[in-house]
Amino acid sequence: MMAMTDPGKSPLLLLDGASLWFRAYYALPESITAPDGRPVNAVRGFIDMVAALMTRTEPSRLAVCLDLNWRPQFRVDAIPSYKAHRVAEAAPGTEESEEVPDSLTPQVDMIMDVLQAAGIATAGADGLEADDVLGTLAARERNDPVVVVSGDRDLLQVAADEPVQVRVLYVGRGLAKAEMFGPAEVAEKYGVPLHRAGDAYAELALLRGDSSDGLPGVKGVGEKTASTLMLRYGSVAELRAAALDPSSDMAQGVRAKLNAASDYLDAALPVVRVVTDADVHLSRSDVIPAAPADSERLNQLAVELGVVNAVDRLVSALAANGS
Question: Among 37, 40, 141, 273, which has the highest number of CB atoms less than 10 A from its own CB?
Fold first, then answer.
């Protein structure tokens, strides 16, 4: 396994909150309940993941990044199908929301209470999703290496070696099968140019589409063709220039597909790229505390929710990494 971060440096650990608590919810049965009968499977799983990730990465700073808008308007305006299949049915005149299992929604509030009592920072940006918060915090870091944890492959575009090392721990197949990606790993696995692996991955996703986000992609261009084109031309801009150049040796079929998708390509590039200059708000300092911010409240929540052992593991992780 590749090293987590630069030797001798403690990383900034950035967690994709919703990505992790959704995975916790589906990984553990709803039969895990609080003493009063409320399901707490996502709460217990999420707390355990945070503690395990802290133990694995040995960070000195930590922020759980949140979706303040899971379907930003600028992305919907550009691509109306963006995440449209995830919109829950709503009463006329009410604000749209993401379809979330009924027993998960109250657990998110429980998780927020635990994080607050533990003294773990949360981060968000008005009108933007967690991807944009993660992208911004990773891009603006100048001191410590960064580990981004998500089950969303879109975040692979933030992998970088400069100005600091940014690694993405992809947990799409669960924490036990997590894969660590730097630019070299992104380039090797997805077949994109190494010198701009992060940006090229975003452009690969643009070409092939992403059904989980409602992005149609270029009709007739799958992942293998997209990779071949990215390796040959280096970027979508160069690829489109070749498609418009009658003297280029691009195959007529590919040329026709790209030119037919011109409007889509114009609109979708800002949709697939994470924002890296968002106005991010932190709930508190991201420096990990050596002890919970409110031990009494944290202990109360642990007993009330029936997650004493998970909270104990979290407190131990704080003590091991905090200052």
Answer: 40
Q: How do residues 26-44 score in pLDDT, each as one tens digit?
A: 999 999 999 999 999 999 9
**Dist. CA 42–CA 28, nearest whole Å:** 7
Q: What is the pLDDT of residue 90?
A: 45
Model pTM score: 0.93
Q: Are 183 and 194 in contact (CB under 8 A)?
A: yes
Strand partners for 87: 98
Burial of 192 (0-12, 13-18, 19+ CB in 10 A): buried
Which positions ≥6 away from 118 have C-beta within 8 Å? 289, 292, 293, 298, 314, 315, 318
Q: Put residue 234 in one of left, alpha, beta given phi > 0 → left and psi -120 to 50 → alpha.
A: left
7 pLDDT above the threshold of 70? no
- For residues 80 and 75, give the distance between their C-alpha atoms in angstroms, rounded to a whole number: 8
Reported as a pLDDT band with limits 50, 70 and 90, residue 294 is very high
In 10 A of CB 253, how many CB atoms? Answer: 9
